[in-house]
Amino acid sequence: MGTPLHIALRYLFAKKKHNVINIISIISAAGIAIGSMALILILSVYNGFDNSIREIYESYKADFTITPPTGKALEATPQILNSISATEGIAYASPIVSENVFVKYGENQAIANMVGIDSTWLQYNHIGENIVEGSPKLGTGEIQHALIGGDLALKLQLRVRFLTPLEIHYPKKEGEFSISNPLASINTVKTFPSAIFRSSETGTANTLYISAATARELTGQGENGCSSIEIFLEEGADMETIREILHNIIPNGIIKDKQQQNSTLYRMMKAEKFAVYLILFFVIAIISINIFSCLSMLMTDKQEDIATLLSMGATKETVSKIFQLHGFLISATGCFVGTAIGLIAAALQKIFGFISLPGNYIVSEYPVEIQFADVAITIVGVCLMGFLISYIPSKKFFKN
Where in the chain are the domains? Predict the structure, then answer.
């Protein structure tokens, strides 16, 4: 490898008889450098957005949720809740009643996702930080209150200070539907909006929160009935140990952590990132075809050198390896230069935030997060592609 590599390096930096070969080499290396830089920057920005979205969604999710294996009902007896709460590392466990309901406010109607909670749940969830109007409370005496998502409030055209009650309807589970008197087959509760929150930042665009007791009354759940149990952990708690304990307490329950609760979102983001990588990699592959032209012209230009090497005892494989290494060096040089520039630009954006985001987003500058895996797949992918493209012209030359 020493002699072919030495000669390949000499060819890389030496002047060719035909200046066009130098130009094509520079264009090939520059194109690969730009493509590598773009890969590093775009993948780093995707990582930044991924982390930002995770922070948004996960801050409004419980550390664990337990749902029934089948159906919608889960029995959360006081014994079960006490066993969960007594587990080391668990700060709070709350039964949640969740259903799709029909809501009416004046003449406006909508289908909404109703979530029944208790007042302690609001202390552990961060929805209160996004209240834009009113104060988060679930009841005052006998008056029932509701926390409304901003999008749902806009559909219903309601405000916190309006005196019109928000009617929530849900079909009764027992008895047959009465055609003559449909309202007799529907449970109805009246609540008054106490707060409106930014649903766009909490992932709850069409949600309203009411007290768990009111939700059970509306849906006909039993005293201990719920749709899920949300569990909030203490800081530094061992999640895997707690997961095993929860499996022992509720063997048939489906236990999901924050990432599993948002699995569809994360799968979509990974798929988008992979698609962008493939598109940019395909662009680099097209640019790398210049290496094919460059090597073909270089081998024609160096026919006298090739004849000399062969007469001195070099094999065709050795000569072929010289030009393969030459093409690989063009690709590797462009890749490492582009990767270095991309990493420097990404680091500067992360520190100083030179490029800002247009419009009203959760962050003001493009978020950036550099990951070693992205750097590795960029370097390995581009260099491997350069090696494969360099292999073709050298073999074809001696075959002809």
Answer: 2-58+265-399, 64-258
